[in-house]
Write a structure and sequence with these properties.
The protein is α/β, with parallel strands linked by helices. The protein is built from nine helices and 16 strands. The chain binds adenosine monophosphate and magnesium ion.
Length: about 350
């Protein structure tokens, strides 16, 4: 299949230019679709053959369920059983936006989509291109992050073009993703919101709406043998470059910089990924800029992780951030990228 590209970046009449891509979705083909979080590998969520081809194109484990994207509330009733009061509140406040809510699914959702679970993660994205594509296709769209499984998620087309060349009917260029990290995934258990995957919608924001929030222990912790896993995706190696990575964080910035410089001294063939303002202090010429604010860092992370292996260094030393607000999501991705090789400087 020859992949065609649609440039939707400056486009006013989205309905018109997205028509062929929407048609491809209804024909069971795959499309690379921008969202406000990361790019998605999109297919008709109700078509089990199409969904199977997502798993094949990504090399994704079959027990890792897909998130189903809708354009408006009218699509929801058909997909899920009764919606609880807390879930309804979350939808009212955070949709459209980067929040995925786990709900009891109806039979119309094929078991490949939900990986055999009786629940499904639903999200209503705010990105206009994604919304118009779903509206035009008139079906809910299953879309995991557009990356070969294990690799960092794609936040712009240039990063993922090659990975899906010939495997998708269309790639839609929507420019850089606004957020750069995947959605926050939540599930209500015994009337409490549990965060299964942190994202741009923070625990603090959710707590303001629903009261107490539980952060699943696997958000920052490694999975030990025989533990119950509430989100299958947590089990898998993710985001990690081939190069060994170490995550270093300390609230005392000077101490953190000193520690990283000691590591560079011990192994001069090191790459440092750090905050813009700290980079001048590192005694190496191999440096990559994380950004300064948490928003900038979240936008940059996946592209930076994709660059690590091009440096051919022995180790990449990556600065961490505080584990609060959006920082929790950043640290969740970085811990996994570094395979929990983490030093906290006290
Ligand atoms: P991705 O599609 O790559 O953004 O990953 C989707 C994430 O959502 C994975 O970590 C899944 O485990 C999680 N997820 C999707 N559906 C469910 C579900 N029904 N229950 C729990 N976690 C889910
Ligand atoms: Mg993913």
């Amino acid at each position: 299949m020859k992949t065609k590209q649609i440039d939707a970046r400056e486009e006013k009449d989205l309905a018109k230019i997205l028509k062929p891509a929407a048609k491809a979705i209804t024909e069971g083909k795959l499309v690379l679709m921008p969202t406000e979080t990361v790019y998605g590998l999109a297919a008709n969520a109700l078509d089990s053959q199409a969904v199977k081809s997502i798993f094949i194109a990504k090399g994704r484990a079959q027990d890792n369920p897909l998130i189903v994207h809708i354009a408006d509330f009218s699509m929801l009733d058909n997909l899920v059983e009764e919606i609880g009061e807390i879930e309804q509140k979350l939808m009212n406040v955070f949709w459209p936006g980067p929040l995925t809510i786990i709900l009891k699914k109806k039979d119309i959702i094929p078991s490949v989509t939900s990986a055999g679970l009786d629940t499904v993660g639903i999200r209503m994205p705010s990105n206009q291109i994604a919304r118009v594509l779903i509206q035009q296709a008139k079906v809910p769209i299953a879309a995991p992050s557009a990356n070969i499984s294990g690799r960092p998620s794609g936040t712009n087309l240039a990063d993922i073009r090659q990975e899906f060349e010939g495997k998708v009917a269309y790639r839609i260029d929507g420019g850089e993703c606004d957020i750069g990290l995947e959605s926050t995934v939540v599930r209500v258990i015994d009337k409490k919101v549990h965060i299964l995957r942190p994202g741009k919608i923070t625990a603090e924001q959710i707590a303001k709406v629903t009261g107490d929030v539980v952060i699943d222990k696997h958000v920052l912790g490694k999975i030990e043998k025989d533990e119950i896993i509430r989100s299958p995706g947590m089990k898998y190696r993710h985001y990690a470059p081939k190069t060994k990575c170490m995550l270093i964080y300390g609230t005392d910035k000077e101490k953190m910089i000193k520690y990283i410089n000691q590591q560079i001294q011990a192994n001069p063939n090191s790459l440092v990924i750090g905050r813009k303002e700290n980079l001048p202090y590192y005694q190496t010429d191999k440096k990559l800029e994380l950004g300064t604010t948490l928003e900038e860092i979240s936008k940059n992370i996946f592209t930076l992780l994709r660059k690590v292996d091009t440096y051919q260094v022995d180790i990449a030393l990556i600065e961490g951030v505080e584990k609060q607000g959006l920082g929790l999501a950043i640290m969740n991705r970085l811990l996994r990228a570094c395979e929990y090789n983490y030093i906290e400087i006290l």
